[in-house]
Amino acid sequence: MIVKPFAPSSLTLGLQALVRRLHPSHPQFTTLQQELKNKEAGDFAEYYILKELEKLPQLSDCHIFHNVMLPTVLPMQIDILVITSSGIIILEIKNIRGTVHFKNDPRQLIRTLDTGEIQVFTHPEIQLEQYIQAMHYFLNEYHITIPIYGAIVFPFNNVEIHREGEGLPIVMGRELPMYLHKLLANNKGIATTEITNIILSQLQHSKPYPLCRYYQIDPNALQRGVFCENCGHFGMEKRKRIWLCQRCQHRCTDAHVQALKDYYMLVGDTITNRNCREFLKIECKHVTKRLLQKTLQPSCNSGKLTEYNLSCLLETPIKVTESPLKVRKSPLNVPKTPLKPKQSPSKTNQITSKKLR
């Protein structure tokens, strides 16, 4: 049973907005475009594995989480967590291609691309061992002691793997059902519901916003206006009850909401009437005031300087629009219908410390 369903990472959504609103001539555009591509690939791999797990009948009584962060002494951001009567299973998903070497001394992951370029990353085992230890610490706070397993999962057969020595399991996507079957064969009668409820009550969320500050980008470099989902054009015009795209004549009643979410992800968590007019390219302050009052709650009433809190927009999911990347189709467009939970819970190249997706 999927308890916490797939959702694109906060960084992916923010990067989509940032790349969409940056001009290709911006000095950081190419780097951010590649980072977005990597994040989308990672998200797609996690979505794919979740869908495969959902098909397995042996997991019908298990509880599956996507993207788990818990308050622990060690950093933890688990891709997929499976709670079973045999123990907890942590899956670290890697969607990479090329030739990869798992080196043991020192522990590194070396990737060689078809172009001959070599990239160095943190060994996934180090991450996985840290997550297993962190989960033990977390459960100890509740006096729970159960087996915790972990595996590195490569969803697709587009990678050639070389490994030095032994270590935690490395599993290809098609091997995953058999790997899980062996673990589930040793049923220890663990109360999965109790552990699931504890995890649901302690889930944390990480949002790196605003991204302009995160990447040290001047907000003035951003494209202003309201984006048309139909034709990809900025500059929808506000009419009496709708937004109208002058290019394709597409009409939308709430196109401004995504623009305000873009502002939240890129610029800041509050907005004034003046800021809103400039960002959405609305001329009338009275129209803007009505729009803000209908959409948001003021966080600070000071007349002309009234600030509106944008964080409430995240109570409804940020819409995953078509990726601004033109080099390939965004994998985030694949899940047209999101996974439905049965229970609702509340820079590249030579990098050795960054999590590889």
How would you describe the overall organization of this protein?
The chain has helices spanning 10-21, 29-55, 124-140, 176-184, 192-202, 211-214, 255-266, 273-280, 285-295, and strands at 2-4, 63-68, 78-84, 87-93, 98-104, 107-112, 118-122, 148-154, 159-163, 170-172, 237-238, 243-244, 251-252, 270-272, 297-300, 307-309. With 357 residues, it is an alpha/beta fold. It is globular.
User: Over all CA atoms, what is the radius of gyration?
Assistant: 23 Å
Low-pLDDT runs of 5+ residues are 326-357
Number of helices: 9
The N- to C-terminal Cα distance equals 25 Å
Q: How much is the average pLDDT?
A: 88
SSE order: EHHEEEEEEHEEEHHHEEEHEHHEE
**Biggest sheet: strands, sense, closure?**
6 strands, mixed
* Overall outline: globular
Number of strands: 16
Which range does the strand content fall in? 15-25%
> Which structural class is indicated by helix and strand composition?
alpha/beta
Q: In which range does the helix fraction lie?
A: 25-40%
Strand order of the largest sheet: 1-2-3-4-8-10
Outline the secondary-structure elements.
Blueprint: E1 2-4, H1 10-21, H2 29-55, E2 63-68, E3 78-84, E4 87-93, E5 98-104, E6 107-112, E7 118-122, H3 124-140, E8 148-154, E9 159-163, E10 170-172, H4 176-184, H5 192-202, H6 211-214, E11 237-238, E12 243-244, E13 251-252, H7 255-266, E14 270-272, H8 273-280, H9 285-295, E15 297-300, E16 307-309
Parallel strand pairs: 1-2, 4-8, 5-9, 8-10
Antiparallel strand pairs: 2-3, 3-4, 5-6, 6-7, 11-12, 12-13, 14-16, 15-16
